[in-house]
């Protein structure tokens, strides 16, 4: 009997994953009436066997149509796996090899047309040079790590569908749709059974009730299945089409609030972190035509002051909207009245004045329209030449510029009868009068200076720069730059004209030049054909690299990615300060980005110049201790991030020392080796007398912790095996919360300061108290079950005291529901930094900071069930060489926020609230699913639009 596939894997490492992969491929898209559709062989016998074993394996290989290699360094080194691969290469086509990466790395080098063997560890070298093109391979490393081997899990389902599709002879999406169809077939049959049973309701009420219950269960299963399929597709699209990823994640959550839909929301938030608004969705396919000269059909423009965005497209949503130039008020975040204008086929000039009031638009046949944006009125049309009489390739403006004050327009073009001659003209925008005209030679690029006093014309072919003065109406040569790249296919000039960016597709290289000094400032590999430079010639650059829009530094190094499109970017524009960036793609999609984090992850000013590793957070206060004084801050709401409280004239060193602040920050209390004292940080003066506790010695090892209670009078601290409640007015002990047998108690306090937990860091026992109206603590929980390993290194409580999270020295997170006493354990966290745990305000999400050799970021977990929700990688400086200092620190913010501070001083506010993720995604993309997508995923289901107006 012929088999569809043969799974080759390392028995020592990947037996469980191989079994799950085989089971998933058998189940996917299986009709409910059949046991299985395809047959995939997996050897389950011992590899220390004899000749008979190899004979049986050889027979299965001969009968198999596809070879599925479960890649890992162990499999690559296995002689049995190598024998199986060698047989396949000798007797079958390598095109029938499918790769699933369980561990290790796989990297394809497009330039070499082979795997990058310097970076690939999961494949045997016998595959070198075997493949003519990149083979199908999927990444199961994250699935293997989380051990979520279920088709209800988005990433595992996606990988199984990708591998099973060739075996079925179908596309992946078609197979996924078939799986959903089979589930719905079963649902329809069940509905039919319910109908029949309903007719017998009079005589069989019990049976009818049972059927109704099963109908509800079937509907729930169908909704869960549809939600998981939507979430899986959202995860697939996150890197290539963040807009669609957000849309699918929202619908997945609306269909059923599964762990997969939550993870898809988190991934969509990260993919859209710099997006202010998705204005147009793309077609997802090329148009049936190309414009004049193959020019871009999607164009964007942003006013210098960042107030207005203008855009149009021949493709995408414009086909439905009926054309027109659309306007968006960036500051108010809403659409303005569109202009009833028609641009040139294939695109063309689109420029806004610095204040966003005047728009320049190129229309057909070398005509320029001037529009009053606020009134939506066309002021005049300027005719450069009778372009309709020209050859198609010459029927457009070749270079153009609008002065920032909207007083002058300059353009180069051809005229009928003089096709070999290029003309350069300057017009007065107010009157439409031609004020200067000359024949132009070479490949010119035009730009006006930031003060609109000079027009610069750069001849890219000869490196000559000349200027025109509007006041004198005279041209002047500004020198020759002989070394600039003459092969450049794109040139970007900022308003200042002092720098220029040259891009070449032929050599895939970009260069930044200073036009005043003739100095090459920077160069980089890769084409930067669409770019925007800051108006003053300084600050970061914004450029399109294929399908991505990125922020670059002055050395043309990528700082971060703003967003991605499913098609190549055709137009980029930015405000003068670089805060607002717009981009349009080849399939008509248009998006607006914020470079300062005004989107999901808000960038905050760091006026105190704090950096990760330079301060500590404890007791509701952040502090940086020096040899003679300690500076103090409170985590604040709004746009400041940290609010300065003041300083006290004494150090607060690490060890048997702790500090806490009142809710308003007017008083801090310090305990230092048994001595308690209070201070006013605003004046630096000590408040009252200090008190020495001679009868108690702090337990070292976990670090002393101190917290104020809601009355701002009492503090609580752990001392030896006891927990003490102390009145700061008299330094008297008001209550001793003693627990027999407690070793090294680790304290945690809720954000509202009403719930206190003491965790036995050695045994994992937990004791929880609540602050009562009698100004005393009352016990509410005594329990255990927290993972301890070598010892618990940190614990935190949610703002309202609903949930406690702890992490042990092995990186295992424990999540305790304080109301029920239920404990769930998460997989091991990614990297060092387990001391930084933050729960969202609604206690539904947990964030953990991680740092590896190459990156830092947040790992996210579902605080209710321990499900892994993914990572938010932070584009931060390299981790510090001093490994004792963290590269990333977290602090609880206002609402459901968390503050992240990296080793470079970048301070961001990020939301951990799932409801906030939903609301923010709805603000950037609120259009419904297309009919095709709705029919594919939601047929027979009633699902409301997730973004209700």
Automatic annotation (TrEMBL):
The chain crosses the membrane at residues 189-212. The keyword Cytoplasm does not apply. Residues 2-147 form the TIR domain. It holds the Pfam family WD40. SUPFAM superfamilies: 3-carboxy-cis,cis-mucoante lactonizing enzyme, DPP6 N-terminal domain-like, Toll/Interleukin receptor TIR domain. InterPro entries: TIR_dom (IPR000157), Toll_tir_struct_dom_sf (IPR035897), WD40/YVTN_repeat-like_dom_sf (IPR015943), WD40_rpt (IPR001680). It comes from the Bacteria. The keyword ATP-binding does not apply. Keywords: Membrane, Receptor, Transmembrane, Transmembrane helix. This is Toll/interleukin-1 receptor domain-containing protein.
């Amino acid at each position: 009997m012929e088999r569809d596939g043969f799974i080759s894997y390392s028995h020592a490492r990947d037996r469980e994953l191989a079994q799950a992969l085989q089971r998933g491929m058998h189940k996917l898209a299986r009709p409910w009436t059949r046991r299985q559709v395809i047959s995939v062989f997996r050897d389950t016998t011992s590899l220390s066997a004899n000749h008979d074993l190899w004979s049986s394996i050889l027979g299965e290989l001969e009968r198999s149509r596809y070879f599925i290699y479960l890649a890992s360094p162990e499999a690559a080194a296995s002689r049995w796996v190598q024998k199986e691969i060698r047989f396949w290469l000798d007797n079958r086509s390598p095109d029938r090899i499918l790769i699933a990466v369980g561990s290790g790395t796989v990297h394809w080098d497009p330039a070499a047309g082979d795997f990058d063997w310097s970076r690939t560890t999961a494949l045997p070298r016998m595959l070198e040079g075997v493949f003519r093109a990149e083979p199908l391979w999927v990444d199961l490393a994250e699935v293997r790590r989380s051990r979520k081997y279920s088709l209800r899990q988005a990433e595992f389902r996606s990988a199984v569908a990708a591998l099973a599709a060739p075996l079925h002879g179908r596309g992946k999406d078609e197979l996924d749709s078939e799986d959903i169809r089979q589930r719905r077939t079963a649902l329809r049959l069940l509905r039919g059974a319910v109908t029949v049973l309903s007719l017998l309701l009079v005589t069989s009420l019990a049976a009818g009730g049972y059927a109704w219950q099963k109908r509800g269960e079937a509907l729930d299963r169908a909704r869960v299945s549809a939600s998981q399929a939507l979430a899986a597709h959202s995860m697939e699209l996150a890197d290539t089409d963040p807009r669609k990823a957000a849309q699918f994640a929202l619908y997945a959550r609306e269909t059923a609030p599964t762990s997969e839909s939550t993870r898809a929301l988190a991934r969509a938030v990260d993919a859209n972190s710099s997006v202010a608004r998705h204005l147009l969705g793309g077609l997802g396919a090329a148009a049936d035509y190309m414009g004049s000269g193959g020019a871009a059909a999607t164009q964007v423009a942003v006013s210098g002051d960042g107030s207005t965005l203008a855009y149009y497209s021949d493709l995408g949503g414009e086909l439905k909207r009926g054309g027109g130039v659309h306007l968006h008020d960036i500051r108010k975040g809403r659409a303005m009245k569109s202009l009833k204008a028609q641009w040139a086929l294939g695109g063309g000039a689109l420029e806004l004045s610095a204040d966003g009031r005047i728009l320049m638009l190129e229309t057909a046949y070398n005509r320029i329209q001037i529009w009053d944006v606020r009134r939506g009125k066309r002021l005049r049309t300027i005719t450069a030449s009778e372009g309709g009489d020209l050859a198609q390739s010459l029927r457009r403006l070749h270079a153009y510029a609008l002065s920032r004050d909207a007083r002058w327009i300059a353009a180069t073009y051809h005229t009928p009868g003089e096709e070999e001659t290029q003309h350069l003209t300057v017009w007065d925008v107010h009157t439409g009068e031609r004020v200067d005209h000359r024949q132009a030679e070479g490949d010119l690029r035009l730009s006006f200076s930031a003060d609109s006093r000079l027009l610069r014309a750069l001849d890219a072919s000869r490196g000559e720069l000349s200027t025109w003065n509007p006041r004198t109406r005279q041209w002047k040569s500004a020198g020759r730059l002989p070394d600039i790249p003459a092969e450049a296919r794109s040139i970007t000039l900022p308003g200042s004209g002092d720098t220029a960016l040259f891009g070449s597709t032929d050599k895939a290289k970009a260069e930044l030049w200073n036009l005043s000094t003739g100095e090459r400032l920077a160069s980089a590999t890769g084409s930067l054909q669409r770019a925007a430079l800051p108006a003053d010639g300084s600050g970061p650059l914004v450029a399109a690299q294929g399908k991505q829009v990125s922020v670059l530094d002055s050395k043309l190094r990528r700082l971060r990615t703003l967003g991605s499109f499913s098609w190549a970017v055709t137009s980029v524009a930015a405000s003068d300060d670089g805060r607002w960036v717009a981009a349009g793609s080849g399939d008509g999609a248009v998006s607006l980005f914020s470079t300062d984090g005004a989107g999901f992850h808000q960038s905050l000013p760091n006026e105190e110049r704090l950096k990760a590793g330079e301060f500590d957070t404890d007791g509701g206060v952040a502090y940086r201790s020096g040899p003679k004084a300690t500076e103090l801050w409170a985590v604040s709401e709004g746009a400041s991030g940290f609010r300065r409280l003041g300083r006290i004239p004494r150090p607060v060193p690490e060890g048997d020392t702790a500090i806490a602040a009142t809710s308003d920050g007017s008083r801090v209390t310090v305990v230092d080796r048994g001595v308690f004292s209070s201070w006013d940080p605003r004046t630096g003066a000590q408040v009252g007398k200090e008190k020495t506790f001679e009868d108690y010695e702090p337990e070292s090892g976990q670090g002393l912790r101190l917290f104020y209670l809601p009355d701002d009078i009492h503090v609580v601290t752990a001392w030896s095996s006891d927990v003490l409640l102390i009145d700061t007015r008299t330094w008297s002990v008001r209550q001793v919360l003693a627990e027999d047998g407690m070793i090294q108690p680790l304290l945690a306090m809720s954000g509202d300061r009403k719930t206190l937990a003491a965790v036995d860091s050695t045994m994992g026992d937990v004791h929880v108290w609540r602050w009562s109206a009698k100004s005393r603590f009352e016990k509410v929980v005594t329990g255990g079950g927290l993972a301890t390993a070598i010892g618990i290194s940190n614990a935190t409580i949610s703002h309202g005291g609903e949930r406690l999270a702890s992490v042990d020295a092995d990186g295992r997170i424990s999540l305790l529901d304080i109301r029920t006493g239920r404990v769930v354990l998460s997989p091991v966290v990614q990297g060092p930094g387990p001391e930084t745990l933050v729960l969202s305000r609604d206690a539904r999400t947990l964030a953990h900071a991680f740092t590896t050799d190459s990156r830092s970021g947040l790992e996210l977990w579902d605080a209710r069930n321990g499900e892994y929700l993914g990572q938010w990688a932070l584009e931060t400086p390299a981790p510090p060489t001093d490994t004792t200092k963290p590269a990333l620190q977290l602090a609880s913010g206002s609402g459901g926020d968390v503050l992240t501070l990296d080793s470079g001083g970048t301070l961001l506010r990020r939301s951990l609230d799932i409801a906030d993720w939903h609301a923010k995604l709805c603000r950037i993309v609120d259009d419904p699913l297309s009919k095709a997508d709705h029919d594919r995923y939601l047929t027979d289901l009633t699902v409301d639009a997730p973004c209700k107006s």
